[in-house]
Amino acid sequence: MINLKLSAKLNIVVWLVISVPGMTFGWFLTRHNESRIKLLFEKRGTAFTVNLAYNSEFGLLSRNKDELVKLMAGLLQEDDVAAAAILDQAGKVVARVVAGEETDFLFFQPEKLFFHNKTDFTIKAKKSHCRGEPYLFITAPIFTTRQKIFIEEDIFFPDKEKLSREAIGRAIVCLTMTDLINDLSNNRNLMAVFFIFILIMVSGMLVLATRGLIITPLNKVLAGTEIIGRGNFDFRLDSKKKDEIGTLASGFNKMGEALQKHTKDLTAEKEFSARVIESQTDMLCVVNHQGILTRTNKALLDLLGYSADELTGKNVIMIFGNNKDDKVKKTLAMALRGENIQEWETELFSKKKEKIMVSFGAGPIKDETGMIIGAIGVARDIRERMKLKNQIRQYTENLENMVEERTRELKEKDIQLIQSSKLASLGEMAAGIAHEINQPLNVIKMTTTGMLHFFKKGKNISKEMLLEELLTTNAQIERIRKIINHLRTFSRRSKDIETEEIDINIPLQDSLTFVGEQLKLHQIEVQFKLDESLPKVMADANKLEQVFLNIINNARDAMDEREKDFANGETDYEKLLNIKSFAEKGQAVVTISDTGGGIPDNVREKIFEPFFTTKEVGKGTGLGMSISYSIIKNFKGNISFKVKKGVGTTFRVELPGGD
To answer: In the chain, fewer beta carbons within 10 Å around the N or the C end?
Structure first.
């Protein structure tokens, strides 16, 4: 990096301040003049072309090539015109002329210019380079004289609305831009020389003025600064001048006075900081970048039993008992790398090798450049706090054990409530279950009675008939066995909420094993519509069956009560239980609808409350729907109901599908 003196920097700044705006202004001025000259050049060429187009009407209509050539030859007298041509309406060349040798303008092929759209007869200009030289090609339409003639507005405002006119051809003029470009370049060079001369003159004068007015006084200030830096705070500059330099000298003198006062204050501050450190109740130590102790406070020395001389100059690992543990070394190294350490619980060792549990924190010490030159550590004796912490931990463990024990008790109570609800349901369904078993027993009795009758009469029984009767008896016995096994499974006491992947249709169908015949006895028609493609759910089939039984039993009782309102026979009443299962948004859903008239408004909010019942004393425990709600929630599902007043209630059970 180049180090420059202030005078050189000021000279550079002055030159930049003058040269950059000046050169920018010169550049914009040159560009503006060049743009204006080019525009005038193009307008001049357009005027040539329009004039040629106007005078070429008769020659083009009569196809008089000589007249057209004569017209264009006169145009070539202009210095900038290099070639011209007349084209008919179809774009074919009728006549053309070129300045100089014909072979020099083989590139001039007017029929290939401007004809992307042959019906476009407007004035156009196009720049192009041919054989390294710039040219401007301008085309103008040739109109019949019976139409409106060109005026200046037609040339410079071609988009202005005009009368319709018939175009019979085009005139094309080629202008060389070489002389124009050369003239512009010469003007640009002259302008640059002029601006550079002005910049040099102005910069020189400003540099001389800057040296006399700024640089010399600043050198005096710099010399005074060096004197102050050597500790001579009594040195003062001459501040009699009333300009900015005088103000600077006055400020310098005030700075010297302030530094003199600040030095005294800093000395007092240093002594005060030392007293504060010594009075700290927390232990404090300072180490250099090598981990060597450079300072300790009274609290650390008193707690560890060392003197300041015994610790100063020793490695900080000494107060950690010369611990070789990698964690201690890594943590101390982190502080020396500039990382902060907070609330690190570790052990310090006293001079008598006594272990002292402390909370240790550390942070880096940096110089004025930001470089880490050491670290400061603060430690606090936490032996009393550790005793309290151990006591709190012991209390917490005891509390956790108490909570765990209470949770087990609550789970046991919950299981007992579920079991009680099952037994209550079985008690309510006893008649229906008896009927379920009695029906196959009657079939067995009739079969055996018939066979005994045949034997008593001495009639022969064929093997086919005997086999048929035995198969019938065996089927009824199997039916009774299934009912009893299902009854045993349903009434079994569960130890906990157990889940497995099941088809929700199975417990729904099993629930009718107990109450199917009972519903028939109550003249209740059951309509089933089950979706066989339901997603499997994570649940306990036995407990789901209990939920469905509670809902079905409540529906049965509601329809029986409603039937009493129609006991006089004046109105027909149909007792209908509609059971559906279907999939919805990844869930398995079961709805059970009845025609029991609906749950009254005043009890709807209490349906899922424990021990709430609308039944007579001795006919209900009030636990059925409360337990059902708890069971469904344990399976991460939802149970709700919707009432259609005067018609009935629909209960809805939703369970999430398994992964």
So the answer is: N
Distance CA 55, CA 62 (A): 13
* Rg, C-alpha atoms of the chain: 56
Q: How many CB atoms lie within 10 A of CB 118?
A: 11
Higher pLDDT, 588 or 340: 588
Least confident piece of the model among 399-403, 539-543, 593-597: 399-403
Single-letter amino acid code for the residue at 82: A
d(CA 588, CA 537) in angstroms, rounded, equals 7
DSSP alpha helix (H) spans, 215-357: 216-229, 244-279, 298-304, 308-311, 326-336
* Among 466, 468, 467, 477, CA closest to 444: 477
Chosen domain end from 322, 347, 381 = 381
CATH of the domain at 599: 3.30.565.10
Number of domains in the chain: 3
SS3 100: coil
Q: What would the two tokens of residue 106 be?
A: 């083989």
Of 199, 198, 259, nearest to 230 by C-alpha is 259
Is the entire prediction scored with pTM above 0.70?
Answer: no
pLDDT digits (tens, 9 = 90+) for 345-397: 888 888 888 888 888 888 888 888 888 888 888 888 888 888 888 888 888 88
Judged against a pLDDT cut of 80, whether residue 647 lies above it is answered with yes
Whether the Cβ atoms of residue 94 and residue 187 lie closer than 8 Å to each other: no
Q: Compute how many other C-beta atoms are within 10 angstroms of the C-beta atom of residue 245.
A: 19
Please give the pLDDT value at position 364: 87
Q: Are 143 and 155 in contact (CB under 8 A)?
A: no
What's the chain's average pLDDT?
A: 78
CB 114 within 8 A of CB 27: no
Whether pLDDT at 590 is above 90? yes
Please indicate, yes or no, if residue 475 is contained in any of the structural domains. Answer: no
CA distance 221 to 255: 12
Count other Cβ atoms within 10 Å, centred on residue 659: 7
Residue 639 sits at φ, ψ, to 5 deg, of -130, 135
* CA 80/CA 101 separation, integer angstroms: 16
State whether residue 297 is helix, strand or coil: coil
Q: Which of 141, 165, 183 is the last residue of a domain?
A: 183
Q: Which domain holds residue 580?
A: 499-659
Same domain? 175 vs 286: no
Q: Please give the angle made by the CA atoms of 556, 562 and 567, to the nearest 5 degrees.
A: 120
Q: Tell me the two tokens of residue 259.
A: 């530094």
CA distances, 13 to each of 80, 203, 209, 274, 620 (Å): 47, 10, 14, 49, 101
> Which has the higher per-residue pLDDT, 170 or 244?
170
pLDDT tens digits for range 60-114:
888 888 888 888 888 888 888 888 999 888 888 888 888 876 555 555 666 666 5
Q: Which residues contact 93 (CB under 8 A, 6 or more apart)?
A: 85, 86, 87, 110, 111
pLDDT band, residue 505 (cuts 50/70/90):
very high
Domain of residue 46, CATH code: 3.30.450
From 643, 636, 644, select the one nearest 653 (Cα to Cα).
636
Rounded Cα distance, 185 and 173, in Å: 25
Residue 360's nearest CA partner among 344, 381, 374, 372 is 344
SS3 of the chain: helix, strand, coil, percent, to 5: 55, 20, 25
How far apart are alpha carbons 633 and 543 in whole angstroms? Answer: 12
Does pLDDT of 567 surpass 50? yes
Task: Determine how many CB atoms are found less than 10 A away from the CB of residue 425.
Answer: 24
